[in-house]
Amino acid sequence: MAQSATNLIAGPALLYTGAFGATEPADTAVNATPAASAWTEVGFTQDGVKLVGDQAFLEFEVDQTNTTPERRQTKQDWMVETTLAEATLENLSLTMNGGTTASGAGFKSWEPNETTSATQPTYKALIMDGYAPQQFRRRAIVRKALSTDGFEVAYVKDKQTVLAVKWAAHWVSSSIRAVHIVDQTS
User: Fold this and answer.
1) CA-CA distance, 93 to 21, in Å (whole number)?
2) Does residue 111 sit within a domain?
3) Is the pLDDT score of 72 beyond 90?
4) What is the distance of C-alpha 147 from the center of its chain?
5) What sign does the CA torsion over 81, 138, 179, 95 have?
6) DSSP letter at 94?
7) How many domains does the chain fold into?
8) How many other CB atoms are found less than 10 A from the CB of residue 76?
9) Is pLDDT of 118 > 80?
10) Calpha distance 53→182 (Å, rounded)
């Protein structure tokens, strides 16, 4: 591939959440906002939205050479990481994979789930809409995600209160991949 400045990418991404199994936008709709009936934008983020891929390999060893003769993939992890700049109860619920909400005249509240370790967690689906080469759009869909880190809410005199979150992707099925990435091309 020849060098091209039009392949350089910069700019923010929008992040949406939906229920695990939510209807995904068609690849041809990569430049359109996901349907509000299935997808909710999380609001402002801080320091970007990252899609992180990681993989691990088994290294084979033999006596006849000191060069690794072959590797086999043993693990693949995908994460979406961001800092939610809007420290709302709805975003707090996203960082903790749900919970119980209530509201009434002049208030709303949230309490975390308390379940046994054997309880199936509530998975989410994520859409990350950012830029692709040539100022087109790129969409990454994580089909089955779970927030896997803890969080803290800090109230500091000279700093913004934010919620850092990491969602890990999980296996869906033998025919449906955990992650789908599509670029707009025209």
Assistant:
1) 19
2) no
3) yes
4) 9
5) positive
6) H
7) 1
8) 13
9) no
10) 16
Mean of the per-residue pLDDT values of the chain:
95
Please, which residues bridge with residue 53 across strands? 78
Q: How is residue 68 written in tokens?
A: 């690794």
**DSSP state letters, 78-108:** EEEEEEESS--HHHHHHHTT--EEEEETTEE
DSSP string over 10-75: ----EEEEEETTPPPPPGGGTTSPPPTTT-EE---EEEEEEEEEEEEEEEP--TT-SS---EEEEE
Q: Output the pLDDT for position 115.
A: 78
Instruction: State residue 59's pLDDT score.
Output: 97
Please tell me the predicted confidence (pLDDT) of residue 153.
87
- The domain that holds 175 is classified in CATH as 4.10.410
pTM of the model: 0.91
Average pLDDT over residues 55-71: 96
Q: How confident is the model at residue 97 (pLDDT cuts 50, 70, 90)?
A: very high
How many CB atoms lie under 10 A from the CB of residue 51?
A: 18
186 CB-side CA count, 13 A: 0
More confident residue, 157 or 114: 157
Nearest in space to 19 (alpha carbons), one of 148, 113, 180, 142: 142
Both structure tokens of 77? 């992890």
Cβ(97)–Cβ(119) below 8 Å: no
The first and second tokens of residue 174, run together, are: 């033998």
Query: What range defines the domain where residue 43 resides?
Result: 5-59+77-99+120-183
- Tell me whether residue 69 is in a domain: no
